[in-house]
Design a protein that fits this description.
Elements (H helix, E strand, L loop, with lengths): L4 H16 L7 H8 L3 H13 L3 E4 L5 E4 L8 H9 L24 H16 L3 H4 L1
Antiparallel strand pairs: 1-2
């Protein structure tokens, strides 16, 4: 399993908003500058975060983005699943996977299933507040 740039950057954006958004909205250009990220790339990540009600934005003077909830209410697992789609280590365990005809005789399936559970449990046990 490899977490994409999109997932890693989304975590960095969310952490920056958690750290710097206590007093209101944070302009994305400031987040991009602090995190040394391309503003264009950050702007591609934001629609999913807004759509899923992780952040809210205001346009115009004094605008920007802020977290909708407290940092302790966001898990790394939720953010990564939002950006990555799934954290399954093999295709047959992905949420949208068709039933595998070999599942009943697959000697490796229990191993992959356990790894999938460990990964989700690990990331679900870490919040933005923990990382701050």
């Amino acid at each position: 399993m490899m977490i994409s740039t999109k997932g890693r950057y989304a975590l960095r954006v969310m952490l920056d908003l958690a750290e710097n958004g206590k007093d209101g909205y944070v302009p994305m250009k400031e987040v991009a500058r602090r995190q040394e990220l391309s503003l264009k790339y950050v702007e591609k990540i934001l629609p999913a975060l807004v759509r899923e009600n992780y952040v809210e934005g205001v346009h115009g003077k004094g605008g920007g983005y802020r977290l909708v909830r407290q940092p302790r209410d966001y898990t790394v697992g939720d953010i990564l699943r939002l950006t990555e789609g799934d954290l399954a280590p093999v295709a047959c365990l992905a949420c949208d996977a068709a039933a595998c005809s070999r599942a009943s005789k697959c000697k490796t399936l229990p191993m992959w299933t356990r790894l999938y559970g460990l990964v989700n449990d690990y990331f679900d046990g870490i919040t933005l507040a923990d990382l701050l």
